[in-house]
Design a protein that fits this description.
By secondary structure, the chain is of the alpha/beta class. It contains 17 helices and seven strands. Strands 2-3-4-1-5 form a five-stranded parallel β-sheet, with helices on both faces. α14 packs across α15 and α14 packs antiparallel against α17.
Length: 375
């Protein structure tokens, strides 16, 4: 059979940016309810009042960041009064870094002499801009779990939400975005921050298989030329995405499979391209989750991986005994962590047939891959 090959100057990609992690699609499916809830929280800001504070919560890869970016883009097109500022707390995870990023987006330039400038001076500059230009501010703190150490989240929230006490008339709202379902902010914030934050909550549930197929099909239609991704290969990408537990796995998989086919000079993606690409893409979700784990959670995952490498089946009771002996966790904390790892699609917990209520804990990834990443 003759293979249809690309010419040297041809490409499979109509728009490669469609597969970038920070791409915001025009057609954004299955998050209408969350968009509506967030728009309601921001509505006071469009009417000249302070926006309502919000927590966006959901597993990684459920559209939280894209929803915020899309909503903020609509706000910027609608009004100049409400100023939305997005902060990636994996990058800016100190109070000074966050306030500097806010100032940069509000004023259009970095703070002068920021190397020797105090947080208070930068924050005062932000407040003066808001006061002078009569702007209302809403700040989205993405991956805010990175601020829970060293008391940074308390400091950031207190600084932003108490501004009006020093600069009367300033109005600031905060959106906290969390991918860690186990974090209860009420337990992690001090009394001062709690008293002024009082957020509403918007939950982002995992996408179903059918929803993932629609989303990836839409990305493929935007990013590839017609005919590049056959239906059976799309089905394979969807299957691997659901195994990975993160929509970003599927988007990255499309990109890598397209590159593989293009490098071979073929006009269509084949099964071997998807399977080869999956060897790299499948770990995106695992890496994203591991970055959010605290010391106890990493310790439990490490011991699960080591036990899984030694034997085929681990019961929950046996695992607790080993973890309690190794790192001294009590059962309640152990149960919270294992339940979280299941919710984050790192492990599966199943009941064993014929053994009463005995549960087995099984990894979704090879133990050695997890141990490599935990290092």
């Amino acid at each position: 059979m003759t293979r249809h090959l690309l010419n040297w100057d041809e490409t499979l990609f109509r728009d490669p940016e469609v597969f970038d992690p920070d791409f915001v699609p025009e057609q954004f499916n299955f998050r209408e309810a969350q968009m509506h809830e967030l728009a309601f929280q921001l509505r006071p800001g469009l009417q000249g009042a302070r926006p309502l504070n919000t927590v966006c919560r959901g597993p990684p890869g459920t559209g939280k960041t894209t929803t915020i970016r899309k909503l903020f883009a609509e706000v910027e097109e609608t009004t100049k009064t409400l100023v939305p500022v997005y902060v990636n707390c994996q990058i800016d995870n100190t109070t000074f870094g966050i306030i500097s990023e806010v100032y940069s987006q509000v004023s259009g330039h970095l703070p002068r002499g920021s190397g020797g400038t105090s947080t208070k001076k930068v924050f005062d500059a932000v407040a003066r801009v808001l006061e002078r230009e009569q702007k209302i501010l809403v700040v989205a703190l993405d991956d805010a779990n990175y601020l829970l150490y060293e008391n940074e989240l308390n400091r950031v929230l207190y600084s932003l939400l108490r501004t009006h006490e020093v600069y009367p008339g300033t109005k600031i709202g905060v959106i906290v975005i969390l991918s860690d379902l186990s974090i209860q902010l009420a337990d992690r914030l001090d009394a001062r921050a709690q008293s002024i934050f009082r957020p509403g909550e918007v939950y982002f549930n995992p996408y179903s298989s059918d929803e993932v197929r629609v989303i990836l099909d839409e990305r493929a239609r935007q990013g590839f030329y017609p005919g590049v991704l056959p239906g059976e290969q799309l089905d394979l990408v969807v299957d691997r995405t659901m195994r990975g537990g993160d929509l970003r796995v599927g988007i990255d998989l499309l990109k890598r499979a397209g590159i593989a086919a293009e490098m071979d000079g073929r006009r269509r993606i084949e099964e071997k391209d998807v399977l080869r690409a999956y060897t790299a893409s499948r770990f995106l979700h695992l890496d994203a989750v591991i970055r959010t784990l605290d010391a106890d959670e990493r310790g439990v995952l490490d011991l699960i991986a080591r036990a899984s490498a030694e034997r085929d089946e681990i019961t929950s009771g046996e695992l607790f005994d080993e973890i309690h002996e190794a790192i001294g966790l009590r059962y309640t904390r152990y149960y919270e962590i294992v339940t979280k790892l299941e919710a984050m699609r790192i492990v599966d917990i199943t009941f064993r047939a014929g053994r009463g209520r005995t549960r087995s804990v099984n990894l979704r990834y090879e133990p050695e891959r997890i141990l490599e990443r935990l290092k």
